[in-house]
Amino acid sequence: MNDDNFEKLRSISGRNKEVGEAAKKETAKKNLLNAIRKKFTTSLFGNISRFEQNFGRLWGFQKGRNEILSESEKRGREIWMKCRKSVLDFSNNLLRELEKELDNYCFEYLGYHFDFKVKE
Asked: pTM to 2 decimals?
């Protein structure tokens, strides 16, 4: 193999390594964003659920679809649905802003590290 071929192969290998590193960083970023999105969504809906469980009686939350709501419950449900929509819209906007903010950063997954201590 002559020197020209060797240098070409070395150059190709270097470019492949750079592409591989960039792909790893992009994958790390996507994985982090997915984890954040999942935890954020779980937290949001968990909190809404707790609110509904504790205050839902004010708008007939425990009643079935065929049960008639009192006027007070109807008004409470109307207020709750507006509030719930507002909270969800606000939270979704925050999540989108966070996603845009993360575009300004580079990520590298360092993996998990375990140290095992051997007893003598």
From this structure: 0.68
